[in-house]
Amino acid sequence: MPYHRSGDASAQADKLSGIVEESDLYEGFAPHVETSEIKTLDFYNLPKPSGKEPALRSYTEIQQLLQQGKKRDVKNILRENSWPINSPIRAQLWPMLCGQHLTKQQMLDGFYWEMVHQVFGTTELSEKPIMLPAFVDATHCLPYHLTSTGRAVADRIVNVLGYDCPDITYSPVLYPITSILLHFMSEEEAYMCLAGLVGSKEKVFINQTKLQHEVTWKTVMQIAKKHTKSAISYFQRICPGLKLERVFMDWCWWILAGLPFQHLVRIMDCYFHEGIKVLYRVALVVLNLFHKECQSNNEWSPDNIKNDIGNALIKFCKKIPVSPAKLLHAAFSIRGLSTQYISRIFIKTEMLLKSRSVLNSGSKQLIKSRSSDNLPTSQSQVNIQMMSHTLTIRELFTLWSWLPVRITMYQPVLLYTTEEHGCSLTTFYVRVEQHEPTLLMIKTCNNEVFGAYCSSRWFERNVKDDKGQRQAYFGTGETFLFSLYPERAKYPWVGIEGDKDLGHSSELFMAADSKMITIGGGEGQAIWMDENIRFGKTDGCKTFNNPPLCPSGDFEIRVLEVYGFVGI
């Protein structure tokens, strides 16, 4: 049966409640871990900190900083504090770090075990192997140092997660992350951690579709071409026919399947707070270190690695010549690798892949799917006709064909309309701000109809960066403008067209405050509306390279409607 925590967070028993007595050396591990396999002495028996070196920070200190919203301070502590691999702090620290990303309402006590009972009919752990969900990569179900019981627990967790999150269709790293979590906590806590990572809206932790997986490794490849030029050039020189794609498809396994467990645990300390960008940085360091070793160590000579550089990288990681602390220090010393930069590369890569998949398909079957199978149901069409003052069914079909394919699987719902909810930006935010994505439709007093597909929550106008400053603009390259009457046209983000850096003015997607909302910027605002949702203006802008969406430029709003999507 499951073991549970006591209520006293400060007690040592709470750090690993329910764990059988162990030697001090292995006090930090859960009972379903084969501790004899874990090498801890090299890092456990380090000299005590001298007077000049700060002592390791405690869980309570980090908890207080998080409660105060000092996420940047927490980030620095996690990067700099090399807790031993067997430190009990992770039993509390990791659940707290993962829990901050939960977007669902707080799960009630016993929720996980109710789900287990729903899926398996019992909470007793089966002695027979259970079939894993289709999104798991069977070749990378890495158990690390889990016992056979621990592996069975990991199997059960990913099954329950797959049942609770049917949108996960491809996620090869989910099982290894589950295994790592289980080294330091109970089954229920590990599930809650995964729920936070999978459900996070503000940061990416775990890819959940094949598209996301492909976009991620291609993003790493693009970043590596810029930040590890020497290594990339060397590989291409010793292997003239090398396809970099084959090397980078397995980038995550350099880390998850290659690095020693001591290194992996320290990486996870930072990853659970900062997200996947930590793994990007570590991958770049691995490439640079491998390149350096190739030039000085015969084991990694060109003749030995040129036939399979990808496999050689994983083997190198198993023998990596630096400590976890030095690896992380090098990773976080890379300049010019901001979250904004990574996001820009990721979005461009994603949009290019999506556009190519549509262009390359050329299939009538795909076109039929887009125009019929994935359109709103007949009932939804009737509902929209009854509720909408802007959309005809024909216009709805046109608009639907412009949406990202994954969004067409969901049914639209009217969140806000000035006809029913009044003309107030405050009411607009209350009803709309937590929904992502949204369709914003404007009908002017001259009967023009236009609007925007807004890829991010309007709540992000309140999100602060690491320096505590509110971001002026937010959103992603999936945002687009459209006009339905008198012209019918879609105006996508200019960044879709290629890899060229178009500058900051090409990424001004969405902005909002208590006085106005804006979509599109750079030498003009594509859509601007005042706080009373009565008057607005439209200009051409650099973000979407659009003309004004109505001839006069200035407009008076007859109706504003905002749609969300059920089930997202």
Automatic annotation (TrEMBL):
Gene3D superfamilies: Ypt/Rab-GAP domain of gyp1p, domain 3. Its main location: membrane. Residues 389-566 form the TLDc domain. Keywords: Cytoplasmic vesicle, Membrane, Synapse. It is a peripheral membrane protein. Residues 84-275 form the Rab-GAP TBC domain. This is Blast:TBC1 domain family member 24. It comes from Drosophila guanche (Fruit fly). The lineage of its organism: Eukaryota, Metazoa, Ecdysozoa, Arthropoda, Hexapoda.
